[in-house]
What we know:
- By secondary structure, this protein is of the alpha/beta class.
- It has 3 domains: 110 residues, Double Stranded RNA Binding Domain (2-Layer Sandwich); 43 residues, no CATH class; 320 residues, Alpha-Beta Horseshoe (pyruvate-formate lyase- activating enzyme), CATH 3.80.30.
- The protein contains 18 helices and 18 strands.
- Strands 14-15-13-12-11-10-9-6-16 form a 9-stranded mixed β-sheet, with helices on both faces. Strands 2-1-3-4-5 form a 5-stranded mixed β-sheet, covered by helices on one side. Strands 7-8 form a two-stranded parallel ribbon.
- β1, α1 and β2 form a beta-alpha-beta unit.
Amino acid sequence: MTLELILRDLPWEGDFDYEAECILRLFFPGEKIAILHQPQTPEGDWVSVELTPQGEGVAISLGVQLNSGEIQARDMVLPSQAAVGGMEWEAERRLCLLLFDALCQLTGTRPPWGILTGVRPVRLCRKLLGELGSLSAVREALIQQYQVLPQKAELALSTLQAQKEILAGNTRSSYSLYVGIPFCPTRCLYCSFVSHAIDKAGKLVPDYLELLCRELEEIAAVASRLGLELRTVYIGGGTPTTLEPNQLTRLLGQIETSFPLSGISEYTVEAGRPDSISREKLKVLRDFGISRISINPQALDDVVLRAIGRAHTAQETLEAVALAREMGFDNINMDLIAGLPEQTPGSFAHSLEQVMALNAENITIHTLTVKRSSDLRASMGADAYDSGAYSLADLLAQSQEKLRGAGYLPYYLYRQQGTRQNQENTGFSRPGKEGLYNIYSMEDAHTILAAGAGAVTKLCGAPDKMRRGFNYKYPYEYISGFGEILNRKRQITEFYKEETP
Length: 501
């Protein structure tokens, strides 16, 4: 299937094509969308958008032809209706509403997050709260102006409230450190991260680790010169615990030597794969003061685990958690994914019950997101986006009800393109056990200085001012281009010089 998106006579050079395409992808994930600014006579399925100045306002005309059905719709944006975001912003929102309503009618489906297509709905809630002044007004705006379903609006607002006190202590000089280890025991079917199976890429680890430690030294020196205050450290991947105990000791020792860790609020290591965990590795983590670990089974069903390319069993997950508890870890996050191949509502519910029985302090519920670079997308094509007959919305609602009933509250939330049935990813925690790095990073609350292959540094300054810096994506590029990696660290100093009055 190919959809033609036709845009005519736009009065602004905005992102109207991008926003319209994002709305289309809510309904047709994985399908080809051709954007035409000077179209021929359209054939097949098409969407036509025209924005025309009329007096002080702008008229929006929309046409949609889909599966032999056709809808024409019009709207008018006046300056008096666009006081908050401006005419361009309001015209974009109105266009998205027209297109959303037409596609709901023609497809018989209704995405639960309405016209919200961005990753961070809680950030929008925070912005609206500043403009509207009350949570009830924000809730009304989400439902009426953005067509978000009430239960999703409530989830976003609950998350917003959980973050309030944590973000209140943030300052302009705060920062977090991210360290990327792009190696795993095996590559999962759905994975799109920069991650390599250790049996194929293990020969790169010694050189990678040595250069990573040099990059960490440079980051620490820059942060010290700028007077930045370290709040959290997060070592992710990949699976950091694919490193051997002596390699973990080398990495954690470098961080301990280079950075002031005595005042940090959280130190996380993703020990994500149960088959990468051993007593020796956990002892290294304990010896270096790691306060939070993730053990992420994604499912506790051996049939599902085999289907997604995991080499461990559900029983190995239970044993890994028991070992971590024995070693003294009292803040464990566990991830589950809804919508996996071979998964049923019953098997997901059983996985959640087992994770809750383990008393994990954090439980993160993801919805399977199909990425173009994943083996799942490569093997199944557009069919990868089809999650079968059961409702993920019902499954997630039931899961959230169970978690709340057991004392877990949502504390961070994000969405992605290509997520099955347009659902979300939500982190739940016991009160006081929220994953601070997740909040700081997802809400762009402060600077994230990042090291390693594929790492992205996010420099946050004045409100809504942010600059990203990218490391080379793959380990071999990181190793061969390491000189340029160090050169890019100059951007950090330059950014903060611009921020100084």
